[in-house]
Amino acid sequence: MQVSAVGAATGEDVFHGRPESGRFCSLQPAATQPQTGYRTMDKDRIKGTVKKAKGAIKESIGKASDDSSLEAEGKIEKAEGALQTAFGKAKDALRKS
């Protein structure tokens, strides 16, 4: 039997434990079936979340530096991100039903 850290991808047994401690917890066969209930998140949700974070950073920098145009740009980008996230959630809901 071969033990590998990438056993789940290769179908080998996977070691679960800390080998540096000298204690071996168990050897469990790698899962061969896909996870049930696993859903992929819509790309619009991910992109929207990133855009909201970037907008929040711009807004904070604009407030800290008293740059009203950068602050306004950050607020707009946050709003765009929120809309894109909502759109992605709606697409996920349609896909689920």
UniProtKB/TrEMBL annotation:
Could you tell me which InterPro entries the record lists for this protein? CsbD (IPR008462), YjbJ_sf (IPR036629)
Q: Residue ranges of region Disordered? A: 1-26
SUPFAM superfamilies listed in its UniProt record: Hypothetical protein YjbJ
What the entry lists under Pfam families is as follows: CsbD
Please list the coiled coil stretches. none
Q: Which domain of life is it from?
A: Bacteria
Q: Report the residue ranges that make up the CsbD-like domain in this protein.
A: 44-95
Gene3D superfamilies cross-referenced by the UniProt entry: YjbJ
State the similarity comment. Answer: Belongs to the UPF0337 (CsbD) family.
Specify the protein name. Answer: CsbD-like domain-containing protein
Which organism encodes this protein? Sinisalibacter lacisalsi
Lineage start? Bacteria, Pseudomonadati, Pseudomonadota, Alphaproteobacteria, Rhodobacterales
